[in-house]
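Support case: user asked for a sample of complex input and structure output to validate their parser. Sending the pair below.
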Amino acid sequence: MNELNKKLFIAFLIIFSLGMIALLVINTATNSKIQDLSPKYDVPNFELTNFNGDIFTDNDLINKITIVSFIFTRCEGACPIMSKNFRDLQTSFKDSDLVQFVSITVDPEYDSDSILKSFSNQYSNNDNWYFLRGDILDIIELSEQGFKLSASLLPGGHSTQFVLVGQKKQIRKFYEGIVDANVMELQNDIVTLINQG
Amino acid sequence: MKKKLFFQSAVTATILSYLLIFIGGLVRVSGAGMGCEDWPKCFPDRWFPPLSSDQIPIGVDSFNLTLAWIEYGNRLFGVLVGISIIVLTVLAIHYYKTNYNNFRSYPSLLFSSVLSLIVVIITGLLGAELVWSVLDPFIKTLHMLFALALVSILSYICIKSYKMINAKLFRGLKKNPILSKSLIFLWVLIVIEILLGTGIRTNLELVSIENPSLPKGEQLNALSSYKYLHSLLGFGLLFFSIYINYHLRDHSLLLAKQLGYFILAMVALQIFLGELMVFFDLPQLTRLFHTWGSSWLVGVIIILYNCMKNE
């Protein structure tokens, strides 16, 4: 082998190895994302009421990709940011009828149907976002046992996390609802779930 | 001091920078850009990503260890590149002060070394801004363009310092003005081609942020017709590289001919990879090599151009 061929061969070998390493890294990254989205817990049975009086149960989560949050309308800190992020996601996925949004009030005594309705008017621009209320004890149990989110010192102490629920009513992943990077990640993960079918 | 030390240091910095562009591209195509949500630390209170999942601090949600290390690898490698360029700049200043090996007749080596240090710092800061802006597509492009500027400057330092220590090789070369002008033109066209390419990528990302549920194949359709300009110019570059090789055919310097072949082969490969991306739903590895190959072209044309030039 002459000098030039030798050099070309080495260059080829280096580039080939780089390609292999890159493929391995891309694969590991993809698998880790799928692993992150693997089903974690089943959502338990629940029954709450939407602001228009309709009953909303865990069965309404089946065959939908649902993003769940716990909020209350009098909250001035995190909830407006969380609800704005919900609205942005709602706008992003306006073309997909698979995606739906659920916000459960942790202050059902104050948040009457009419207050939830005007809150909905303020943020939601589609009918795929449900604002639910029910008995406070049921909501605490649902938050803590069902969605694994702390619910102490309500209403102020509710969790600011978003929960991604897959089509089989299984919790897939949690996101900090007031951190932009997390919301962006949630958006990407919703796409992944849509593509998984 | 070794005569070749400055040249070797330049080559090291250049190779490391090219590898860094590769790693940066890998971060982008594997979607690991937000692996660490803070900069320069991985979390606000932690320098390095944890090694196992039970070390993830409480309150950090949806943390992916693999993505964090891919992103952090890019930063660590960036530090290595930074150090190699600091060494280069220190050597340049020292050579200049002592006029070692008649270094002062090459003042551009000192300027470009200092410039490469400035550019690498800006590139690093743009990397920080990229994390803080949660991967703004425009900052991504700017971050890459500065990396391209960096390898351009470093490639220039490489060939210039190579000529400094191998002056004999280049003495008495006949200057070919057509070739020199053509190479400048080719370089400008390649930069325009890269800008068009990054424009396509930026707009694809904007489309996917705006409308994430749109299938990948349709995202490309959502772009206006300027995307064809990128393909068209690609073929133009191919013919132009053939023209340049035609002028290089009788060149006395073997290195110049080899670089000419390299440019032609790389342009052809880029067209092949580009079309592969369009027809096979943008596979990540193709994207990575498409970007990386374009960065090689930018540097190699600079090297070839300076081969032609008489000092």
